[in-house]
Amino acid sequence: MTNPEIAAGTEPEKIDFAAAAAAEPQPDPFSPETLRLPPDFEQTAGVTKVLNNIAVRRPTDQEWFNVHPDPAYRGTYAAIKLKAENEFYLVAGHLAEVLAEEVIYVTIYTVMTKGGTLMLWPIRMPSNKDRRRDRWISSAHEAAVMAMERRVRIKADMGAGCYALFTSKNSLAGTEPVWPTEAFFDLLRIAFVKDGLFIGDLNHPVLKSLHDGA
To answer: Under 8 Å CB-to-CB from 99, ≥6 apart: which residues?
Structure first.
């Protein structure tokens, strides 16, 4: 069928696409949204990130963080903490009873900060012996559980004798943590064995220092 307007000699209105595009508001090339790389950019770019250093510590009061929600990325183990150095040594399970006077039991959580720092966070297991200390311990575990669902931050509340917990009001959409593909035991190996923080026998220098004063 013939278009009546064309048949009558009337040209259809031409759209100036270049002018229309110029009239559209242009995004700021330096805005966070424009510059932010997608979470999987390393995979799409063919980049392989080498994971060779993992801190073993508690998140600071200035760090927003998440905890890996998969139970396979946490576990309870025997450990020795050197208070002066603030260092944790992972102890082989068969030595826990032999070193009963030295070891503590900790749950180790896999943590990712908002800035992308991966760490392992050992939190001591609650005990009925010291209720005051348990307030710090229980609040730390509560923060770890909350961080499995949303981004959180903790700060020591000396008056209350526990950690104060803060949750982010912002959505995680677009900023979800990119968790490592390595298995949890590989993370433990990198964090503890690589740096000499694993006690697998009674000849470890830390045990000699504790027992002999050397």
So the answer is: 78, 80, 91, 199, 207
Is 184 in a helix, a strand, or coil? helix
Q: Would the pLDDT of 31 be above 90? A: no
Nearest by Cα to 64 from 156, 133, 143, 158: 143
Q: Average pLDDT, whole number, for the chain? A: 83
Distance CA 36, CA 175 (A): 10
Cα(40)–Cα(24) distance, integer angstroms: 30
Cα separation, 190 vs 78, in Å, equals: 17
For residues 104 and 122, the answer to whether their CB atoms sit within 8 Å is no
**Helix residue spans in 46-108 (DSSP H):** none
pLDDT at 4 over 60: no
Look up tokens 């575990």; give the residue. Answer: 141
102-132 core/surface letters (b: 16 or more CB in 10 A; e: else): bbeebbbbbbbbbeeebbbbbbbeeeeeeee
Burial class (CB within 10 angstroms; exposed 0-12, middle 13-18, buried 19+) of 4: exposed
Question: Among all chains, which residue has been given the structure tokens 């180790």?
Answer: 108
